[in-house]
């Protein structure tokens, strides 16, 4: 029996309200996703989760602990699904990339969820005072780019990408597009708008995967 | 004489402190840029600007008024410079686009300023409770995409883009890249990192400007 269940039974007012950690986490995740880390207070989280403050403190320690748990919840619910789309067997690199980006377009504009990517939205407005949280989000962000880079590396080793393709640059470019799509979703873009962005990217994909190792060959214009 | 100057003289404590609206706005802009709209309080703004609370209220009405003024300040200091780079006479479309994106890469990672684009960073974490502010930022956001679209339209009418190029899709794609670059900057990307993204984009630019009008020809993969 959890502390909350025990506390409820002890109080004996009406039926004991069971504390469902996952449901509470989903509610907390939604609050953080909509409002950001700093603008969300423990009072907001108590309201949103329907749990009692002592329960939240007992389960998660503090706001930061609850936020960390919400990040893990998001990663396991959404980010890992994206990774699975990239690594599904039997797809060409082009199919896998398009499927991954189309799924992101759908998730970012899913009307049952806040818009955009939780990690991207939340990290955009963090202040220096939340350095630990910012570091956590940076790690998660880089995880996304790392996932893309590892995927591209595997495909390159399997001969699906030219050997001279700059994998790091391509992964960064793809991550940048994904992040831009998240911003657009937050800004009111529709599923169709994001699909247009993916279509544009897929149109230039055959050239994109030839992105060379030496950018110094491309003379930067004098501003 | 401003209200603040008059008030200072009246009080007569030491030298009258002149209220410099532009300096105060720059400080307020930096606060909002770093922390976002909701996480910045009037108390923070009083601290940051060094002005007295009644002065800020007299000049700007409330936090939202100060924020609106900060947005205008940002637009006139940074966004209009970007627009000027696009419309500078004597450049090809390719030169103008590259110059615009390289300047954004430099501004987004300028160490004397908060990272990324102020408009993009701030809007990412707005809650539904700040609907008026969100609407203001959406308008500003769209202004950026509109600027790019108008630029492309002019260049198309001058014969620099194929007539079948989907200007709206291309403008949205460019805006998405710019927004992704802002997120990356916020996330710790260096000037060089962002320049690599621009170089990648410029590598596929010759294909990008051929982005066709009919995306339905590109069959979306079944997810």
Assembly type of the chains comes to: homodimer
CATH superfamily of the domain at 76-211 in chain A: Tetracycline Repressor, domain 2
Proportion of helical residues of chain A: 55-70%
Mean pLDDT across residues of chain A:
84
CATH topology label of the domain at 76-211 in chain A: Tetracycline Repressor, domain 2
Contiguous low-pLDDT stretches of chain A (5 residues minimum) are 6-12, 216-223
Known CATH architecture of the domain at 76-211 in chain A = Orthogonal Bundle
Query: Tally of extended strands of chain A?
Result: 0
> What general form of chain A does the structure show?
elongated
| CATH class wording of the domain at 76-211 in chain A | Mainly Alpha
Write the H/E string of chain A, N to C: HHHHHHHHHH
Radius of gyration of chain A: 21 Å
- Determine the structural class of chain A based on helices, strands and strand pairing: mainly alpha
In whole angstroms, how far apart are the ends of chain A? 66 Å
Biggest interface: A-B, 63 and 63 residues
Measured by DSSP, the beta-strand proportion of chain A falls in under 5%
Number of helices of chain A: 10
């Amino acid at each position: 029996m959890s502390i909350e269940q025990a506390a409820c039974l002890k109080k004996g007012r009406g039926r004991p309200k069971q504390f469902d950690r996952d449901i509470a986490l989903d509610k907390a995740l939604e609050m953080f996703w909509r409002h950001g880390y700093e603008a969300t207070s423990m009072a907001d989280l108590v309201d949103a989760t329907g749990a009692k403050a002592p329960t939240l403190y007992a389960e998660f320690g503090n706001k930061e602990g609850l936020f960390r748990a919400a990040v893990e919840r998001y990663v396991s619910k959404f980010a890992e699904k994206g990774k699975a789309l990239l690594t599904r067997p039997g797809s060409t690199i082009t199919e896998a990339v398009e499927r991954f980006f189309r799924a992101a377009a759908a998730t970012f504009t899913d009307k049952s969820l806040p818009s955009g990517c939780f990690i991207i939205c939340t990290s955009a407005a963090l202040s220096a005072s939340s350095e630990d949280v910012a570091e956590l989000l940076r790690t998660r962000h880089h995880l996304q780019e790392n996932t893309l880079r590892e995927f591209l590396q595997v495909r390159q080793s399997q001969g699906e990408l030219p050997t001279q393709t700059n994998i790091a640059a391509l992964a960064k470019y793809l991550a940048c597009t994904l992040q831009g799509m998240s911003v657009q979703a937050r800004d009111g873009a529709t599923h169709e708008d994001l699909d247009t962005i993916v279509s544009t990217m897929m149109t230039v994909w055959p050239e994109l995967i030839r992105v060379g190792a030496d950018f110094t060959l491309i003379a930067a214009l004098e501003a």
